[in-house]
Structures are given as C-alpha cells and as structure tokens.
Amino acid sequence: MKILGIETSCDETAAAVVTDQREVLSSVVASQLNVHAPYGGVVPELASRQHVRDLPRIAAEALSRAHLSWSDVDGIAATHGPGLMGALLIGLTWAKAAAWARGLPFIGVNHLEGHLLACELNHSLLPYPFIGLVASGGHTSLYYVAAGDPPSYELLARTRDDAVGEAFDKVAKLLGLPYPGGPAIEKAAQEQPTVNTVRFTLPKMKDGSLDFSYSGLKTAVRYLLAKQDSRTVPLTVAEIATAFQRTIIQDLLAKALAAARRRPVQALVLTGGVAANRPLREAFARAAHENHLPFFCPPVEWCTDNAAMIAAVGARHLAVGQRSGWDLPAVPNLELAVLAKTGAE
What we know:
The protein is α/β, with parallel strands linked by helices. Helices cover 42% and strands 18% of the residues. Strand 4, helix 3 and strand 5 form a beta-alpha-beta unit. Helix 5 (164-174) packs antiparallel against helix 8. The radius of gyration is 20 Å and the shape is globular. The protein starts with a strand and ends with a helix. Mean pLDDT is 93; it is low at 338-345.
C-alpha cells in the first residue's frame, strides 16, 4: 500500500509517499523561511497563501520522485490538527478533494502522532511502551506511548505558556539573532568558552506536575539585557545564549527522565523541530545511556515538519480499516487522543 501524505500545519508545505511498511519513497518540503524571516516569526495569513501556491507543485513532485502516477496511490493522509487554522485548511481541503476525485480512502492525521512515530520511518520499529517528548515551535509535550494498532497515547505533561521552540525564537530576537531562533542560539552558544557564570532558573510546579513553562525564562533574559549598561564587563550574546540553551536542555531532560521513572518503559524518544538541536540530542543520548534506557531520535530531516511522518501514520490507520469522513474539520488545538474517537470512522 502506497500512501500520499500532506502536511501544512504551519509554514512548511510538504508531501511524501510512504508504504505501509514505513518505507519512504519520496519526501518533498517547501520551506517558507524567507517569507517569514523579516517578521521574526510565522505570519499565519502569509503561510496560508504560500501553501495555496506551493501544494499542487509539491504533491506532483512527491509522486514524480517516487516514480509513481496517481493510479499507483492507494490512499491519502493529511494533517487535520493541531496547527494554524488557515494552513491546516489548505492541506486538508486539497487532500480531501484529491481523494474524492480519485475514489481513494482518506484519513486525517494528528500532527503530534506523526512526530512521535517519526523514528519508525524506513522500516525501524520502536520498543513499546516508551516516553516521547515532542519539542517544537508549537508544542512541548510528554507522552506515554503504549503498543497498539495504532498505538495509544497518554499526555503526561505540556507547556503552560510558551512552547520551547517559541521560547528560542523570542530569546533570539531579544539577543538580536536571526530567525529561526533555534539554530541561531545553538550557533551563538558554540562560540562561548567552557566557563559561563550566567545562571537562569525555572519555576517548579506547585502541583508536582511535569508541565513546562518558559515565558518566565524569556522575561529573565530581557531583564538581564536591561541591566547590561550597569555591568563593569557586559555579558556577550554567546554567554547569554549558552546559559539559555543549557537551562532549556536541563529542564527538558529532567522532566523526560522523571516521566520515565514513574512507570516502566522500554525507551526514551525525542522528536519535533527542536530535537534538531545537537547539544539537546547529545544530552538526551548520554542521560539515556547512563539510565540504561534505549534512546531514539529521528534524523534531522524527520524532526522538522514533514509529510513522510503523516503518510506513515495514515498508512497505519488505513491498514486497520479506519477512514475519515469528508466533513472532518481542521482543529487548531487538536488533542492527540481525539483522533481515535472522531478523526477516523
């Protein structure tokens, strides 16, 4: 079975063809980085317009790279949430129309499920159950993922304000670094000597939860910058970037490991766009090894938004007979558990 996947949840227009054995036959992503960079973040209206322009071409290119025609496609999968409403609608509507016109089964896919199972692309299989951390521009969420067909998910923790990728973007802007903030801060931190006296703290949740909160960290950076003129030796951008990145890594890692200790699991999974951060990946790998826990993180190309992960998840749902109705809505704040109840029929 060959599935065409469509992903337009934010600012990447993506299409891919994946088999029901998770073999990626093609994956095409059109970035909108140049469109949004002047604004320091994604502008929803501009993202939607660019999806309209790019999606037909990107889908055609995905089929071409896979050396397939429409007659070879067995089903279509598209992200229906979470994400930007306008952006979601473009991909979802296009995918429905393409499926209806060709008499193909259609399935709506939860973007977060795609990220959590991205490690299984190209035939790999994750050991279940596992703790999965989705760290991206729009999400910072911890899940307990249990075996199933498809797997089942339990949300353990989420961000209460800024997502981790959003925090990177905002702090980068405060430091005068370019958008997107993640790669810019990682690069700036590489220029920092080993010794760094800057320290940031994060709030501890009074209810004992593992939830994340990064808005206060952003404010701490702003206050620190405001006091630069009073310092005898002003802090460098590299020093602040290093301290910020270190604080984020320590928090993400501590909470992921805490979640893994609360119940028996077979692996620790890190995924999402922020997982492309090399120091973060390395810190997770070291800590998982020290805790005798297998660690999995997708290649960078599967960490950022892509349609291959959507097609692979779609194939799993279609294989067990699940289908989505033509009235399936785009849901910007879609919860992961919702898909099994209302996303498929």
